[in-house]
Design a protein that fits this description.
Layout (H helix, E strand, L loop, with lengths): L2 H14 L1 H4 L8 E7 L6 H16 L8 E7 L4 H13 L4 E4 L2 H10 L5 E7 L17 E7 L2 H13 L5 E6 L4 H17 L2 E6 L3 H11 L5 E5 L4 H5 L1 H10 L4 E3 L9 E5 L1 H16 L15 E6 H6 L6 H6 L2 E3 L1
Parallel strand pairs: 1-2, 1-3, 3-4, 4-5, 6-7, 6-8, 8-9, 9-10, 11-12
Antiparallel strand pairs: 10-11
C-alpha cells in the first residue's frame, strides 16, 4: 500500500482505537502516556498514534487489557505542551512518548525520572535532551527524524526538478534546531547552486501567507520547507495551497504535505512503530539512558507528477528513476 493511502487507512482506525484508550483500564495494566504535537482531529496525528498503538499490539500489548494509553494533543502550541506535560507526569505513567523536541523539553521540565521515548526530534544532543546519541544518559531516548545535511539535499533536488529557479524562500521555525540549523546548511550550499536565499519565519499562518505572497512577486522563485517541526506540520495545508497559487516549485521534508511537488525525508510513521519497540523494552526493565538514539534507516523520495504538470515542469528521468514513489 502506498504511504499516502496508508495514512488515510490508519487514521480511520485511530479514531476507534488510541483516542478511546484512556477510558479503558484494568487492574495491573501498564500505563503509557502520549503527548502529540498535532491537533486531535489532524489526520496525520491520528495516523501516527495508530501506528504507535499497532506497534505495541504487535509486541503483545493489548490496549485496555495489559496496557492503557492516555493521549494529549498539543496542537502545535508550546503553552499546551507545558500544560499537558505537567498533567501527564502527574498521572505517574510508566513511560511517556513525546513527539517533538519542544515537547520533550516540557516533559523533562516536569520530570527527570519518568522514562521518555521521543520521535520526529531534531538534534537531541544540541537541544540538551540527551548527553550523546550512543549513551543518552538521562531519562530520554528515541528517534531522530532529520539531519541538518538533509536541508542541503532539499536544495539540490529543487534545482534538479526546477533548474530555472534562482531565488529560494526557506520556510523555517528559527526557534528550533531544525529551523536554524537547517537554514545554515542551505546557506552553505546555496552558492554552489547559484541561488539567492530568503528566510521566511513561521510564527503564524498570517506570517507565512505574507512572506510567501511577498516573495512570489518576483520571477524564478522556489520554496523549501525545512525540518519536521510542530509549527510547519500545523500549517502544511496552507503552505501547499500558497505554493500552488503562486506557482512556486516546492520541496518538502515530508509527504505529509499532501499535494507537494516533491518530498524527501524519513518515514515518520515508521518512527512511531519503532518507538513502540523502545517503549516495550522500557516496560520490560531497560533504561532509556542505555538505549541509543537512532537515526532514520531510510530516506524516501516521492514525486507528484500531477503537481509538476500544473507547474509546467518536466521531471527528469534520472530523478524519476530514483523515486520511491511517483504519484501520477
Amino acid at each position: 500500500m502506498r504511504r499516502r493511502d496508508f495514512i488515510k487507512v490508519i487514521a480511520v482506525s485511530a479514531a476507534a482505537g488510541p483516542l478511546a484508550a484512556h477510558a479503558q483500564k484494568s487492574s495491573g495494566a501498564r500505563h503509557v502516556s502520549v503527548l502529540m504535537s498535532t491537533a486531535p482531529d489532524d489526520s496525520l496525528g491520528q495516523a501516527y498514534s495508530a501506528a504507535f498503538a499497532q506497534g505495541l499490539q504487535q509486541l503483545g500489548w493489548e490496549i485496555g487489557s495489559n496496557i492503557r494509553i492516555d493521549y494529549r494533543w498539543g496542537s502545535g502550541d508550546t503553552e499546551r505542551f507545558r500544560k499537558y506535560a505537567a498533567e501527564l507526569v502527574g498521572l505517574s505513567p510508566d513511560v511517556i512518548l513525546g513527539t517533538a523536541a519542544s515537547i520533550v523539553r516540557a516533559l523533562q521540565g516536569a520530570s527527570r525520572t519518568i522514562p521518555i521515548v521521543f520521535v520526529t526530534t531534531i538534534d537531541p544532543v544540541g537541544s540538551g535532551l540527551v548527553a550523546s546519541l550512543s549513551h543518552p544518559g538521562g531519562n530520554a531516548t528515541g528517534f531522530i527524524a532529520f539531519e541538518f545535511s538533509l536541508s542541503a539535499k532539499l536544495l539540490e533536488l529543487l534545482k534538479e526538478i526546477a533548474p530555472s529557479v534562482n531565488r529560494v524562500a526557506v520556510l523555517r521555525d528559527p526557534t528550533v534546531p531544525a529551523g536554524s540549523g537547517g537554514f545554515a546548511a542551505i546557506q552553505t550550499a546555496a552558492p554552489s547552486f547559484g541561488v539567492e536565499l530568503t528566510a521566511i519565519d513561521v510564527p503564524s499562518a498570517d506570517a507565512i501567507e505574507r512572506g510567501i505572497t511577498e516573495f512570489a512577486r518576483a520571477p524564478n522563485g522556489g520554496l523549501l520547507v525545512v525540518g519536521p517541526t510542530s509549527s510547519m506540520t500545523q500549517q502544511r495545508a496552507l503552505v501547499v495551497t500558497l505554493a500552488a497559487k503562486y506557482r512556486l516549485p516546492a520541496v518538502y521534508h515530508s509527504f505529509a504535505f499532501a499535494g507537494a511537488l516533491l518530498a524527501y525525508g524519513a518515514n515518520s510513521i515508521d518512527q512511531y512503530r519503532r518507538a513502540a519497540g523502545y517503549v516495550d523494552r522500557i516496560l520490560k526493565g531497560e533504561k532509556p539512558a542505555n538505549l541509543p538514539v537512532q537515526a532514520p534507516t531510510k530516506y524516501e523520495l516521492i514525486i507528484n507528477l500531477k503537481t509538476a504538470k500544473a507547474l509546467g515542469l518536466t521531471v527528469p528521468q534520472s530523478l524519476l528513476a530514483r523515486a520511491d514513489e511517483v504519484i501520477e
